[in-house]
Amino acid sequence: xKAESEFHPFxxxxxxxxxxxxxxxxxxxxxxLEPGRQSRNDGFGKGFSADISFGGExxxxxxxxxFLEAIGPVDKTGSEEPGRPGGVALxxxxxxxxxxxxxxxxxxxxxxxxxxxxxxRVAVAMGRHGEAESIPLREIRLFSPSLRGPLRGRGLLGCxxxxxxxxxxxxxxxxxxxNAFRKAAGDMRREDGE
Amino acid sequence: MQRPxxxxxxxxxxxxxxxxxxxxxxxxxxxxxxxxxxxGEQRYxxxxxxxxxxxxxxxxxxxxxxxxxxxxxxxxxxxxYTAFDLSLLFEKQGLDSRLFLVxxxxxxxxxxxxxxxxxxxxxxxGELHSLSSMDDGESYFSGVLSREGAEDIxxxxxxxxxxxxxxxxxxx
Lengths: 194, 172
What we know:
With 194 residues, chain A is α+β, with helices and mostly antiparallel strands.
């Protein structure tokens, strides 16, 4: 019983140069994306679009490639490569967000965003397919205390070293989505002259 | 002919060298051990009791969203240790080395990139002088080792380096 409880389900995504994993429980479901899909610019700000529908709603979708660009030394080739699979969109329930984040979503000024933000779900487009993996919790390490808070605020919760020369990041997709959304909303407000 | 040393003998010898068994007048004086290292062209001192190990040939794992003087992590026994490039912080010149001092200080897991370890110094309290003029409030050093006929060596204050990191991350 104890040994079982030490494992937890995660989704692992492997990109050239970076591998990360996310808590399976933070994802409601996933949708396949068409090969060669390019995230549309729907006027939501960089990295956001609303071209994914689920449960009769258009979901505001953040393209994780934007985050990977911010991370740095990562090969960005993914769904853009001809012939590659289109990856998946992970659907995140807003109910899993903090009250402050939910409030931000509800109160965001700027009509272009306000009109289209689903109140129940958001999505993250991944350039690739992930693998479900059960990972022993004892393998996951928190960062050093001086880095822990700031990196958590950026959506990096910890890491694991599964093998020689390998470091996998434990990501918080909800936090990454919210950070990008706040930035996009701020850009919108500036553009609107508010 | 000298008898080969068994482990006990080696430990006894190390213990004696470390001053654990000192007696007599010298024992009354307070001694502190420092690890003297080269970082680029500069020499610095570290309190020896703040250093857990010296490791080489460590791969550095990149970390995003941190100041440039944080090279990333090194993996020590499955734990991420934050790797500082003090040369970049102090001299604005990055260091290319895979030699690290590993420290567990105040709950933080830290690693300091160095060029070389030059010596271990055991000095009396009187040889460590405090720095009097810290006008910018940002001294990274807790004192300076002054010995006759030798160059002064600044002793790192790990707390202030960590405080700088926390400040930079807070502003990020």
